[in-house]
């Protein structure tokens, strides 16, 4: 990635459904824990890759439903599509790799002869992926018969069965593992192979991720039978693969600590009275994450409304600095603190959450930082976001907020945005 001038300290390659995203967690607590950890400690020098069976359509739908941060690389449609950055620029080189010995029309023709196969929605039919549903007791027989027929037709394909119901037919060179191997090869060519790579999954279509040489791997505690069976048969003696005791994103955080890949305490896990903070090692990114979490707790009434708290806020804001609301209204930062005082507990007892995405800090002076990030607020199903540009000054024991400018994100609803 052009964003990093050297090798990433850590590259996390994670499946989404039931791995990074826990669909049984209404509060999205594990995902939000991971988000805070990543933005505070890893975004600036590491790479986040989402590797999903979802098509671009369903991936974008999930992003609207869950508080997800933006990955550097997105691998979709079971490893048949690779895109880069927020704008999701496609990798044309990967398309050329997959075109070899692949003919989607022949695949459609032959699969139509199998009544056991139920075709998935059109959004899931991609240039290099044809997808069906099949009952578990029919999967093996269909896979074996279809593999033989397509080979006789001159195609080189891979058939992946996962989730106890999904059957995907891809070019043989495709798949989550091959997509990761392709990325590793590109990084080697550029002299930027990540220092460490951690792969994360829960189902059968994640198995080949764990087979890439040199990677660390975590199967989350809720991993499905098909992945656990693969592990028992292929990797049970591999010390670089962990079956976590935690679910979904919490299992990923557990693995970071287990393999000593870097910090693994999320800012969301830090009690307010834990201990004196290590100011020397608090980065601008960490400051941003902590401040946003503090404002979330304030509005949920999880922080006591006290004069001492307000005084502490005023101490870290420059009185002559300005704050520009997404609507364009301008206040000085002292007024901003007074506005914050008025909204204490206004989200108490709700599912209100705030999270930040793509926090990137640039040092613009000996003690001054320019920080840009996306800030999101959600309350139930309502969500709105803005782009924030902040100028921070590092003083002896803290950062002082000098200026804050916010503008609406294009895809955001423009509802009530108090602070």
From TrEMBL:
Q: Which residues form the Sucrose-phosphatase C-terminal domain?
A: 284-410
The protein's Enzyme Commission number: 3.1.3.24
Q: Is this entry keyworded Magnesium? A: yes
Listed under catalytic activity are: sucrose 6(F)-phosphate + H2O = sucrose + phosphate
Q: Which protein family is named in the record?
A: Belongs to the sucrose phosphatase family.
Could you tell me the superkingdom of the organism this chain comes from? Eukaryota
User: Any keyword Magnesium?
Assistant: yes
Give an example GO biological process.
sucrose biosynthetic process
On assembly, the entry states: Homodimer.
Gene Ontology molecular function: magnesium ion binding; sucrose-phosphate phosphatase activity
Name the InterPro entries on file. HAD-like_sf, HAD-SF_hydro_IIB, HAD_sf, NTF2-like_dom_sf, SPP-like_dom, SPP_C, Sucrose_Phosphatase, Sucrose_phosphatase_pln/cyn
Entry protein name: Sucrose-phosphatase
Kindly tell me the pathway this chain contributes to.
Glycan biosynthesis; sucrose biosynthesis; sucrose from D-fructose 6-phosphate and UDP-alpha-D-glucose: step 2/2
Tell me what organism the protein belongs to: Lotus japonicus (Lotus corniculatus var. japonicus)
Identify which cofactors the protein needs according to its UniProt entry.
Mg(2+)
Q: Which UniProt keywords apply?
A: Hydrolase, Magnesium
> Where does the Sucrose phosphatase-like domain start and stop, copy by copy?
9-260
Function recorded in the entry: Catalyzes the final step of sucrose synthesis.
